[in-house]
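Example 3.2
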Amino acid sequence: MDDHPVEPLTAVRLATYGRDDQNELLGDGADPFGVAETGLTWLPKQEHFGVRAGSRLVAHAGLSRVPVSIGGTGTEVIGVGGVAVAPDVRGRGLARTVLTAALTHARTMGPRHALLFCRPPLVALYERLGWRTLDQEVYVQQPEGPVVMPLRTMWTPLGSGTEGAEALEWPVGEVRLLSYPM
């Protein structure tokens, strides 16, 4: 048994995040997120959060403020994407750590909701982290025009409840992301 206390790993805002960082996390394979088969074009993230173990990046989450139409009303959401934990450190709560930091920042950005897209095997993970499944088609912009998002759409409120109950629920109506998915 190791008698040395292990420092808890914390998330920080990253000044930069690029392909080399992604490769450090997930390797340099052609499809590190397992979504290439969708054929989608993705939006780069604007804000990045990471967890480092020493100098090594072991977890990441990215944010983008994106326009959306819900029930014909234009608004914005915080898109969450690029969530990754290095395979050799999974199961240690690092997804929660990096997402908590990212969502804490997202709450300062204005929109009332965050949205993400994930493969079906990851739905249970995000549900454990407080995300909810949006059980309706969501249209996303692509070079050829809007398409139905083939991945699962999940959301979480960014409000604290002081804004009223409506801030904690997803609005009713057709959802169209007016940008590439994040």
